[in-house]
């Protein structure tokens, strides 16, 4: 019997995101990342329950755990560790893709024209209602696996489409903020509501993006979600973060905070998820790059940048060599 489930050593950076048990980052706090960094390597130890047991420099961890047995050991030389991404808003249970509509919209069709041609949300509602439960479950499992491969280890999953599966997020967070006013922002700052921003939706529908910069500058906590659904067919949080940075003018740090601790907070899960801190669930990504920012910078290459996806201290996905 091993004493511990996992040891990851020799990492260049451990991007903890927060290291003081903070449950959500608001306003300027979003631009400050807690990073443990050392050219001689940093380590994480995961216990047999899948929780983070220790974080430190290689030298400290080596000494402290010199007699310990680990089920698995990962050498992360030259690589970085970030928390698994949290997707704050998806519709991952559906049936019937809408690729034909995408072509229609690019050819200039309006939402009403798509609707009249039998497309739009009613197309999905209809397909979902007619689909056997096993089909929906099979689709969901396939989508969840794709999410894992793209680094998402926790996701909100809205029922929608006339179904009642998945969890409700309640009033700690509001999503789809494409049309939020200045008064709306002030009200959310006052109430401490987290704004869940969905960059792919505005991008695909060519809408004015949500005023994310304004929300953060006003002191709000912002989270990110993919809004993955047959209309916005993107489940990769690295792409979502990239779009948020470029189109909504947020920094790389803010994007990572929004896709980890703040998205976890929007799901009321930030006590256990969304940062690399002792006691939290070991949902981790190993980034095959000398700096963590490569996961956002290398647009469309996340499958090459993510070396390992670890959930509860277990390797659930590994990049093909
Ligand atoms: Zn949505």
TrEMBL record:
Superkingdom field: Eukaryota
Signal peptide: none
Keywords for the protein's UniProt record, in alphabetical order: Cytoplasm, Histidine metabolism, Hydrolase, Iron, Metal-binding, Zinc
Single GO BP term: L-histidine catabolic process to glutamate and formamide
Domain Amidohydrolase: 210-317
GO CC term (a single one): cytoplasm
EC number: 3.5.2.7
InterPro entries linked: Amidohydro_3, HutI, Metal-dep_hydrolase_composite, Metal_Hydrolase
Molecular function per GO: imidazolonepropionase activity; metal ion binding
Pfam families reported in the protein's UniProt record: Amidohydro_3
SUPFAM superfamilies linked: Composite domain of metallo-dependent hydrolases, Metallo-dependent hydrolases
Pathway per the UniProt entry: Amino-acid degradation
Keyword check for Hydrolase: yes
Protein name as it appears in the record: imidazolonepropionase
Annotated source species: Paralvinella palmiformis
């Amino acid at each position: 019997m091993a004493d511990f489930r996992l040891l990851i050593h020799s990492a260049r950076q451990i991007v903890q995101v927060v290291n003081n048990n903070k449950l959500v980052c608001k306003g300027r706090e979003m631009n400050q990342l807690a990073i443990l960094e050392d050219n001689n390597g940093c380590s994480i130890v995961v216990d047999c329950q899948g929780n983070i047991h220790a974080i430190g420099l290689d030298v400290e961890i080596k000494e402290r755990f010199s007699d310990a047995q680990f089920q698995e050991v990962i050498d992360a030389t030259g690589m970085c560790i970030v928390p698994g991404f949290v997707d704050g808003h998806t519709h991952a249970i559906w049936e019937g893709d809408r690729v034909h509509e995408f072509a229609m919209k690019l050819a200039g069709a309006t939402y009403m024209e798509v609707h009249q041609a039998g497309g739009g949300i009613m197309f999905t509602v209809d397909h979902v209602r007619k689909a056997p439960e096993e089909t929906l479950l099979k689709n969901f499992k396939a989508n969840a696996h794709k999410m894992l491969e793209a680094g998402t280890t926790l996701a909100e999953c809205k029922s929608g489409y006339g179904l009642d599966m998945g969890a409700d997020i309640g009033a700690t967070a509001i999503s789809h903020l494409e049309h939020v006013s200045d008064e709306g922002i002030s009200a959310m700052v006052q109430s401490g509501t987290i704004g869940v921003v969905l960059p792919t939706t505005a991008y695909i529908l060519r809408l004015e993006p949500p005023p994310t910069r304004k929300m953060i500058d006003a002191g709000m906590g912002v989270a990110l979600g993919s809004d993955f659904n047959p209309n916005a067919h993107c489940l990769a949080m690295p792409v979502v973060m990239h779009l948020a940075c470029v189109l909504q003018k947020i920094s790389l740090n803010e994007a990572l905070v929004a896709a980890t601790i703040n998205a976890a907070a929007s799901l009321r899960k930030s006590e256990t998820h969304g940062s690399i801190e002792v006691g939290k669930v070991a949902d981790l990504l190993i980034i095959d790059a000398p700096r963590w920012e490569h996961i956002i910078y290398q647009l469309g290459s996340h499958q090459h940048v993510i070396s390992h996806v670890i959930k509860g201290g277990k390797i659930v996905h590994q990049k093909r060599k």
